[in-house]
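Subject: Sanity check before I submit

Could someone independently write out the structure tokens for this chain? I want to compare against mine line by line before I put it in a report. The sequence has 343 residues.
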Amino acid sequence: MALLITLTVFVAAVAIGAQFLKPLLGMDKVSDYPGPGTGSVTVTVAPGSGPKLVATNLQSQHVIADADSFVAAFTAAGGELSPGDFTFKTEMKNSDAVNVLLGKDSSKVMYFALSAGLRIGESLDAISKGSGIPLSELKALSDSPSQFGVPAPAKNLEGFLAPGEYRFPLGTSAKDILQKLVTATTDELKAQGVTDPTKQYQAITVASIVQAEGGQADYGNVAGAIYNRLKPGNTETNGLIQSDATVTYGLGTKTFHLTDAQKADKGNPYNTYANVGLPVGPIGSPGKTAIDAAAKPTANNYLYWVTINLDTKETKFSSTLAEHLKYVDQYNAWCAANAGRCV
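---
Independent answer below. Compare away.
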């Protein structure tokens, strides 16, 4: 009897002790909520955020129960994080929260993606298709750019609609959507120290050319070469940028080949072969890297550049026309070896 009583007391002590130890050892930790959750929580995913950081933020706001199990669920889903504002409920299942981040909860958000380098018409079309907002409404807003705080010379929002993936709550107005994209661009300019409106417009215009003309690794050198061409007293290129991308923008086409007549046409305000200085405005939406390059170009002595491989974006730079023409020959050789690519 004494032994039985002792054993009973021991078992009870172990059980009670276990209840105290569970919180200390994390044994009482819930790994997932049953869902579906309640209320509404808006969480911002900043550019460059990793799944672990986002998961920790979600756990702190009681959206998910456990950051580690959420990261495992997110990884298993095989998706990629995109910056933006996302609307969750509190105490969601991991799988449901993952779907929100991956845009699979499409019935509750407006989603669209803009690639770097898109022209204004292409960007507005993508926004319209993803949001359901009429293209005519978006274009009317774009054609009145002053209300968005862009520099005065802008005729529309060309160059200021920041590339990226976007998700907005259903019912978000067209103006609010465009304002968010514009603000992302102007904030990046300010972050690079470009605060004067005139210089902002110049930087965006240069950045749009950089985006169109070079591979990402060469953006700094392309920007440096453009500014070198704009320097007073430059007798090599006489202030002409000579960018094919600007000419084709003015023509409303996309091609790698221009005729002599097209290059000589001064009536095209985007023709940087015939008109000295920058074109009258941006020729597309530059990404962050191109904007940063335009704001802080790489110091060099280059005046010429040519992408000699359209697959790898390998770009050759030179300070003289003679050297540049040798690289042009390499580009032509690549085109000859890759029929149909250089059209």
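---
OP: Matches mine. For the report I'm noting this point. Strands lie at 38-45, 84-90, 109-114, 164-169, 304-309, 314-318.
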